[in-house]
Design brief:
- The structure is a homodimer of 317-residue chains.
- Chain A is built from 14 helices and eight strands.
- Chain A is an alpha/beta fold and 317 residues long.
- The first copy, chain A, folds into three domains: 167 residues, 3-Layer(aba) Sandwich (Rossmann fold), CATH 3.40.50; 75 residues, 6-phosphogluconate dehydrogenase C-terminal like domain (6-phosphogluconate dehydrogenase C-terminal fold), CATH 1.10.3660; 41 residues.
- Chain A has an eight-stranded mixed sheet, with helices on both faces.
- In chain A, helix 4 packs parallel to helix 5 and helix 8 packs across helix 12.
- The radius of gyration of chain A is 23 Å and the shape is elongated.
């Protein structure tokens, strides 16, 4: 919490959004809807996307990053992780530096880059827990962030103080700001976001490889297959950036998942006709019911978890 | 295909549906809507469900299985796999046996049970490729089977001939009958249905176990986590029955999935700061892009697969 002695900085008036894809476009739309007094400038390399954003009125102008950064009080980088080092370098060269925040899926590496270029109070790591497999401005939704946690990883109290107006804007668009240490964020998303992505992709790759030996398989794929592999349909570059910048934590989660698969394997009967084998078959079935019931309860524990207490949402670092 | 010399049996008039849960209830509703001339009788052990089915007009009466089987021309067993042996035994004892089919998720074991009790032409294995995690009559939907493949596994040409009227009814409710050998069915669903179920449950169990060491994880779970684990929310008994009666094929699929996870593990950088390591980091990223792109393409190959040709839908056995 900011102490009583600190004076909140004034509200933001000029915000630049770099990258008008699904996240940047949704953010521009949400700010337009909920903070209409803001002036918004976009940064977008693709001319067609830039033109569409202007036609839709999402931003008042599209400019190169250096010009937008010199004009803005705050720049939100909604760019692929691999594009962040160059963008941060461009902003670091400005005479009057804006506040800079981002929306990338991993925070430890990105925040280190940010602090190196802009100082610990010049960059605020951010990660909205929302997204879609579809990408680009066409996938943007004005309510994408409504009700969704938006992780913020201030490096220190000074960063928290300087970025307080940005946090206030996030609350106005309906997001739920949640402060975390960058490493704690990366650990948490390794489990609930990056592991589902990796497992979903591994499932899709495994099934595809089986089509040769089981040609009818594709015709029998139903909604269960679709849902379980939905994350595999996302942009490979985004997934790769996650693995690239959160490798050790994702690897730990993957090894844990492999261990859980091994537990199930150990409970599967090794012959089809176990079912007809009487009491032994019943025991085999009970051990499987137990395993699947634990998984069902595990899902409920995550989904029914209460939101974190206010103290954790804005704890002192 | 049935030969020109065979005479199609007359259309069905009296059908019994044993088990008025999501599948049996949806089937009753679909038959009511698309074949209103049929007389339908339900078999249901739970009195509240039986009463609800009568109030909704899904069936004209609810009777014990022996009585319904003696009355019906065809009985559809929409029961848990573990309940099938006893139900088949009851029907086998009838003086005038009805045709019997089922809707269970595995077919090799079930068809063996059916043939043992009722003879190869007395039982037709069936499996609608539709379902929901929610269970019970409340989860039933009159359009659950519309457009969905409904696998049929006739033991021989005589079975195909005798069950032709049932196939005709399935076509009337909008399902797409697809003939397969029971073992081919079990192999195909091991990949596109049972593996997603098992992986989804393993993912849910793995993430739940991580909540102790990463308390913020639950708060950050978003739609990706929900979709990837949706199948884990299904009834543990149904999942267990699948593992119990399709164990070796599911085990093979699980080992393949484990191998795919190992491929990803081998491509993950072992330090967070690989990203800052220059050309080496770029190579690591490229190898990850490649892996995720293959997974994305694999999903598209399954989802965009053309439906099987008519010859495979009704091939000669």
């Amino acid at each position: 919490m900011t102490g009583a002695a600190t004076v909140a900085p004034p509200a933001l008036r000029r915000v630049a959004i770099a990258g008008l894809g699904c996240i940047g476009g949704s953010l521009a739309g949400a700010l337009r809807a909920h903070a209409p007094e803001l002036e918004l400038v976009g940064v977008e390399a693709d001319p067609a996307t830039a033109a569409e954003a202007l036609v839709l009125g999402l931003v008042g102008a599209v400019q190169p990053l250096a010009a937008a950064g010199a004009w803005a009080e705050l720049v939100v980088l909604c760019l692929p992780i691999a594009a962040l080092p160059a963008a941060l370098a461009t902003l670091a060269e400005l005479e009057r530096r804006p506040l800079v925040t981002d929306t990338a899926s991993t925070k430890a590496v990105v925040c280190r880059w940010g602090a190196e270029r802009l100082g610990p109070a010049g960059f605020l790591g951010g990660h909205p827990m929302a997204g879609r497999e579809a990408s680009g401005l066409g996938a943007a939704r004005v309510d994408l962030f409504a009700g969704a946690p938006w992780v913020l990883t201030p490096a220190d109290a000074s960063a928290r103080q300087r970025f307080a107006p940005w946090r206030a804007l996030l609350e106005r668009i309906g997001a739920r700001p949640l402060e975390l240490d960058p490493a704690d964020h990366d650990e948490a998303v390794a489990w609930v976001s990056h592991l589902p992505l990796a497992v979903s992709a591994a499932l899709a790759a495994t099934v595809a490889a089986a089509l040769e030996t089981s040609p009818p398989a594709a015709a029998l794929a139903a909604s269960g297959y679709r849902d379980a592999t939905r994350l595999a349909a996302g942009r490979p570059e985004l997934s790769a950036d996650i693995g690239w910048t959160n490798g050790p934590r994702l690897a730990r989660a993957l090894r844990a998942a492999r261990g859980t698969l091994d537990e199930l394997l150990a409970r599967l009967p090794d012959a089809d006709d176990t079912a007809a084998a009487g009491p032994g078959g019943d025991r085999a079935r009970s051990r499987l019911v137990e395993w699947f019931a634990a998984a069902q309860a595990g899902r409920a524990a995550v989904i029914d978890a209460p939101p974190p207490p206010p103290s954790e949402r804005a704890r002192a670092l």
